[in-house]
Amino acid sequence: MVRTDLTFFDKEEYVVEEGEEVEFTLMGSDITYGADNTAKPVSGAVLELTEGSNAPNVSEAKTDAQGKISYKFEKTGEYKISAVVEGKSIARPYAKVVVKKRAEDQELNFEDTSLEK
């Protein structure tokens, strides 16, 4: 029987600023009939990052023994994140990352609310 893990990230959505690094934690539990389904870290996974309709990019780094992996987002946008483990059957996890402009880079527009004319 082939073992299949149901995998998930520690959050469903992350909101960060450009240039900020995000740490993801990938967990999984064996969903094979009768197996211990306690969630455990998933090591050796790479991230798939998709922005809009672009082809996915794959991270070079892999999750460590604690299921952790970090990625730095340099460009604003919304990204779909998933993970793949070579040679292992997993129900793939999905999360969303929203990357906003850095606060100091945003233009401030103040409306004149004075009564003087």
Short description:
By secondary structure, the protein is mostly beta strands. The chain has strands spanning about 5-10, 15, 20-30, 40, 45-50, 55-60, 70-75, 75-85, 90, 95-100.
State the main characteristics.
single chain; 117 residues; mainly beta; five-stranded mixed β-sheet; 10 strands; 0% helix
Written description of the protein model:
- The protein is built from no helices and 10 strands.
- The strands form 2 sheets. Strands 1, 3, 4, 7 and 9 form a 5-stranded mixed sheet that branches.
- The mean pLDDT is 88.
- The chain is elongated, with a radius of gyration of 19 Å.
- 0% of the residues lie in helices and 47% in strands.
- It is mainly beta and 117 residues long.
How many DSSP-defined strands? 10
Q: What fraction of residues sit in β-strands? A: over 45%
Main beta-sheet annotation: 5 strands, mixed
Shape: elongated
- Cα distance spanning the termini: 80 Å
Q: What's the gyration radius in Å? A: 19 Å
Helix content: under 10%
Low-confidence stretches: none
**H and E order:** EEEEEEEEEE
Count of helical stretches? 0
Return the average pLDDT rounded to an integer: 88
SSE-based structural type: mainly beta
SSE topology:
Layout: E1 4-9, E2 13-17, E3 20-30, E4 40-41, E5 46-51, E6 57-58, E7 68-73, E8 77-84, E9 89-91, E10 95-100
Parallel strand pairs: 1-9, 2-10
Antiparallel strand pairs: 1-3, 3-4, 3-7, 5-6, 5-8, 8-10
